[in-house]
């Protein structure tokens, strides 16, 4: 490595300072520098969504962003789900939903699906089937036919509602340190995934769509 | 069948079980047991090939040809070797030193590992760069300078067989054309006579287009040679690790006991991970030579452009029938594209796979099929993409043709099927092309599907829309398919000479739980759960007390792997038979524990306990027996409680079903919307209904991809124009509707637990149902066929041909009036 740059990534609440080449993709930094292999790679072109992680609360495709572009940001990967308050020391309701509703088969797309599902439920705790389908439309699954993934996210929405009710009736909008209220959100004008004509952002996010020309691929 | 009953003589209830079990609360047959494998996948703890990290691991990047047909004049490695971190650059010359420049395909053709002389398809492997990390390996690959003498390519099978076509396989001695093979089946003369005498004949040309299985995880390997133990371990995305070990041994000359293949978690296979690819060989060879671990993982474009494609059968179908719809004969002629090498992945005695099951679910006396296969400048393949060796093409042919015939005769497509079905009392049924169907009740499945689909209502609605000249036409498509799965038997089915049996080994431990190892390998099918359920059922254990292992040739019994829906029919049978062997020994131990004669001990399936006949209170559980086997074993028996079974199936199994698809076709845009999608499957006795339903959903989604979106395309220069996920379109959650599933149960009479395979039925059965539905929307106007993928422009062209298309120009001009000028069209 000839030319490296020091960056700081806070992943699942833990701060990591690493040296990366400017050209290193975020997904490779997560998988190979930080050894968190739950985030997968399936297509290299931003189509499959296996590499979806949350960056400052927004789902992004980590194969479409250089690690340096994520410098200073808060990331969340599948490995952090069990530590979220709504997991209550066990599985997160989304993880539970995927198991209960048979929302996975080979498991390869699952971490990305969980991240897209989490982003959706953070924004919209009670989504319709159509909204769920739209939210995961950037995540390809070759095994399940999506029907049970939709059920899994519906299961999680119901569970989260119960968790919220048990916690005193407040809606669990996010409750995580990776998507806290003061973190910059995608449409606060600063967000740029760094790839021309692609934001890698969520398809559910209308404002974000508008900011990037309405085109989502 | 007699050998069969002998085989299971040790079990008191040896024959297939009717669907009476409900798991007995222990997670046995028929229970929706939540999957054991899920925990690691939902928490990010899966272990796929690319997740493997070894000390001092090197990375391999393959240099691929940008040309489809070109002679290599020179390869200059020097600039690549100058890159800091590049350890080696390998070409065919280097591999030749180790006799690894070529490798056999599964059909005994000879494929270059790295191009020896001439490139035969775009993205073929030319050189390999080994470096300290993946980025440096890519840097090196960019600096390998290859001089190509570009030749004229041919990427179309028909053109490749013309006299003036460029010769692709000049590496085969005396080869003068691109002809690959001929094959035929059935009785040509009798079929010709039947066609001459028939009241009515129909014919239709149809292309089953080139697809790619495209699992979300690409192919990859980590070669890891240990010079201390002189042992080569290859972690690889393999659906068939044992046969891959044998092939590695045969090709490399390394003794087989010095090779270990590990297939860790695999992110989908669908037939893509059955063949051996050059990347696996290079990673293993580089590790062996450099004595360091070497990782190779494909990018998506490499996966689609160079690894096994599927289908590419250009078919003509013909049916001969009586005026009242009795089918007398079927005839087909196929032009198959095998790519640059004959690398179809199927049993070696079946050059066209099981395509000759094209008589389908129907009692057709006379049949004839012929096939010619050609070499083209495209990636080698013809893998069984989620299907049992070309049964998909066969089902598409017959189910499409039945619809064509129904339209010709003006008959209801459900009725014509009913008229021609093989009847339940005809089983076991020998087809006119030589298949022995084990069991079926085709009308039962169709009736159930018709009822679920509310068929009569939609037929009325369809007519109403025609009468009222509605904007959206309704189409109703039916497919009543029969699959043939579970290869062997070994005497007729082999892979590279190895008979297609499979295996299971059960070890019951002293504390009463068990480890089960199987010769098949899961890529998402849920083996760790379903095989545990089989053993739980057969031994009266709790499913929680059973761990299933697979995918490691050092520890698992030899098996042929998972493809062609063979895991349940073959290894599932092995698990049941091995369980029954354990149960027999358990009886001797129970007799010792209960101080009774062995012949007085019976096993109760319901309670899972062994007891003295007539005295159910005098009983022991499998846990107590396990303790006895290790701590108080009877002198008549060896200590321990284990069994292994290598199961050679007497026949294949024949799952079947009826799918009904109802679509709306937009006359203005050609868009197709799914109104209803009903799937009734019969896979015999069901092990885990939740997993079965999941498999059906996934296969139907792949069927929709096939029918509506997917196609590996080429331009005239041999460039792959459908070679990544931007151009090879997998269906997303927005294209896939909700499915309504149902089932009937017709157990396989020869399978120990009466089960058949199921994972591939939906991929096989759904494409003709979908095409039939779209055709059905236009058949009143004379349309008989629409080619796949049925993209809106393809469908609109057919609407236009039939005079059904409404003019989009009208509404476009209206939109312009309504919208402000700066709006751009978007979906």
TrEMBL record, chain A:
Residues 5-81 form the 2Fe-2S ferredoxin-type domain. It comes from the Archaea. InterPro entries: 2Fe-2S-bd, 2Fe-2S-bd_dom_sf, 2Fe-2S_ferredoxin-like_sf, 2Fe-2S_ferredoxin-type, 2Fe2S_fd_BS, Beta-grasp_dom_sf, Diverse_Oxidoreductases. PROSITE patterns: 2FE2S_FER_1, 2FE2S_FER_2. Keywords: 2Fe-2S, Iron, Iron-sulfur, Metal-binding, Oxidoreductase. One of its GO terms (molecular function) is metal ion binding. Pfam families: Fer2, Fer2_2. This is Carbon-monoxide dehydrogenase small subunit.
From TrEMBL, chain B:
Keywords: Molybdenum, Oxidoreductase. Residues 815-827 have a biased composition (Acidic residues). Residues 1-39, 807-827 are annotated as: Disordered. Residues 43-152 form the Aldehyde oxidase/xanthine dehydrogenase a/b hammerhead domain. Pfam families: Ald_Xan_dh_C, MoCoBD_1, MoCoBD_2. One of its GO terms (molecular function) is iron ion binding. Coiled coil: none annotated. It comes from the Archaea. Residues 1-10, 29-39 have a biased composition (Basic and acidic residues). Gene3D superfamilies: Aldehyde oxidase/xanthine dehydrogenase, a/b hammerhead, Aldehyde oxidase/xanthine dehydrogenase, molybdopterin binding domain. InterPro entries: Ald_Oxase/Xan_DH_a/b, Ald_Oxase/Xan_DH_a/b_sf, Ald_Oxase/xanthine_DH-like, AldOxase/xan_DH_MoCoBD1, AldOxase/xan_DH_MoCoBD2, AldOxase/xan_DH_Mopterin-bd_sf, CO_Mo_DH_lsu. This is Carbon monoxide dehydrogenase, large subunit apoprotein. PANTHER family: ALDEHYDE OXIDASE 1-RELATED, XANTHINE DEHYDROGENASE.
